[in-house]
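Please check these two lines:
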Amino acid sequence: AASLVSAEHGVPVRNGSIGASLALLAALIALPVPAESKSDAQIENLRAFAKVYGYVRYFHPSDEASSIDMDRFAIYGAQRVRSLSAGAHLRPALESLFLPIAPALRIVRSSDTSAPRMPAGVIPQDPSGLVVVAWQHLGVGLGNAQASYRSIRINRKTELPAGSAFGTIVQAVDAARYRGKEIRLTASVRAEVPTGSAAHLWLRVDRIGGAPGFFSNMSERPITSATWATYEITGKVAADAASIVFGGFLSGRGRAWLDAVRLAVRNDSGEWTDVPVANGGFETGPTGEAPTGWRADTPGYRFVTEQDDRTEGSRALRIEHTPASSEEPLFDQHPNVGEMIDEPIGRGLRVRIPLALYSRNGHTLPQANMQLVNDLRAALAELDGDAANAADVDVRLADVIIAWNVFQHFYPYFDVVKTNWDSVLSDVLRRAIADKSVEDFEETLRWLVAQLQDGHGAVSQPSLNARRGRLPFRADWIEGKAVVVAAAEPSPLRIGDVVQSIDGVNVDTLIARDERLRSGSPQWRRAAALRALGTGPKDTRALVKVERNGTVLELQMDRGRPSDETARNIAEPRPANFAELKPGIVYVDLATADMHDISARTPSLAAARGVIFDLRGYPKNNHDVLRHLTSMPVQSAIWQMPEVIYPDRQRLVGYSSRGRWTLTPKEPRLRGRVVFLTGPQAISYAESVMGIVEHYHLGTIVGETTAGTNGNVNVLRLPGDFAVYWTGMRVLKHDGTQHHLIGIRPDVRVTRTIQGVREGRDDVLEKAIAIISESDASVSAAVGARDARRSTEAKALTEF
């Protein structure tokens, strides 16, 4: 091991010294554990590796570190460090791992009180004419085509994010002839993609009036195989369907090929009959150009037909990610040469790493010994990284090390969450070692994300998702009970049934178990747990015990397949998108009404005595409706993208607030009383809308508190095909106070009743009608006085 270290200080490496060094390190690893237990030693060693890994990956700008697959390096490093027999051997092991990619790194004893000195070769005697290379992070770019988040090294070309997260082809047919029938989309597909990217087919049924219809994009079974195979999606055409929209897409990077795209419906005799598809085999039109008959124009992707006779005909369609690059910095600040990380890593050690390096002739200084670099690359190449499986303990450890570091350095809400994140590292490493299966490890990752208390926080793994099915009903928590508020037909359940147990497990226990692995506010975790109630192995039968009007019933119900959208799209009974509930009182469902339809109806909305906007879900890209509610410009809440150049969320250099909405007034203005309905399932985009309503008093807010999570989602892809979703930016209320975990509180709080559900009444909607009708005089007077007072305050406080 000493020869590896000395080589990094400029001592020539003799032939055979690498093998001898590795043999020496292996001998060190084989020594017995002294006083402490092996499990404690493992955790402390892994903690130290994890901390150095995060500093090197995200803050040390060497070209060597940026040239290797750091996901594979995490697996390799976890394997090497986990095998160490004693803490005394940790320092040479860490040096042998990291010096090939961070030649300026030094690991010293914590007792070394000398001032950190820059290693030889970092600052040449004459640095004139040299450029500085250092990391800048806007949030953090994780290579997932989320354009909001970016990470670059200044004075190095960096791939620009795609204009979209996926490149898609689209075609549509009129649905009138196929209403009520089963429909099937098939195609031959293959893909050559990196981890986290995939090819998909997609099929959607659009209904008259905008209500949700069938939709599937194979999210639970993405295509990553480089071999041609046939895939299909099967669904149902609604009785009021307007159009059938379909196609394929490449998500993320790489390339995908499609051929033999077919659409079919099942006729009354059960046979499949083709629906005409324009150029489904991509044989029409010139080779080397976009496919005739399809819309294919996503920025950042190229769509060309090419010769390929391995499936049907002689041609196929290739979709390819075509990134651009730039050397432009993200913002002005960056670390200067001479600035260092000097942090304890445990085991009586600390690490010292430069934050900025000079570059000469296109390479950062000092340059590593290339024999060591090549040896490391060869070792990483031996790992089957593309087929990494979380059944392997080292893959599990790598995943938690990668994820913990992303949140350690870039999660923006630890100031309000107050989680002991350092302690979480030890706990999650222990859990990952103890896990016996991929399913166990999914729970470990969910537990890790739950500690963030982030409503966007979630974990997904396609193969696990594909094994699960849902029960076709939806429940809400009413009067301390899980009450059925929607169910697919035909169903043994009735609206208003109180669910007592599923498969013999009390519903309170089921919800409590689920909530422990959910991230976010209490109201969001409860809503999410209720949505998942009864989820289990697909195609299995569940025993659901319910109470119905004083009688206890035991009902048998089937869990549908993941591709069955019946359970996923079950919605509570609500009025139509646009409905006049009483003379002069109009209802608009913002979860289903698009802006085009709203704009067409604004004259009638402006003439109404009152308008009720229902935002108890997710808006349908229709926030422009707020322009008809104001006489002055309004802005969204304070969106803050962290500008990061230092680790551990220390010395944040600033925030970027670009992208914040400014909405100008638009005629006709709605003159009647306006009420917004909301609740805990309103999250993110919905809270951006409701935040404007709250601050500028654009209407009376009725219902319950929203989820308390806003900001663009970031996606972290991990070995083993896991995806972790989280919030990468901070959102504050307009007055600078906390939004996270607090949300938008109603002006008039309304809780539902079981009796109301059983009678088919909507307690929240009824209160809104009462407010507009002024039948509730006390509420009306209080709300009116408050609106007048807050309107004056808002005009005085708002800056544009």
Observations:
- The chain is about 30% helix and 30% strand.
- The longest strand covers residues 255-266.
- The two ends are 62 Å apart (CA to CA).
- The longest helix spans residues 38-59.
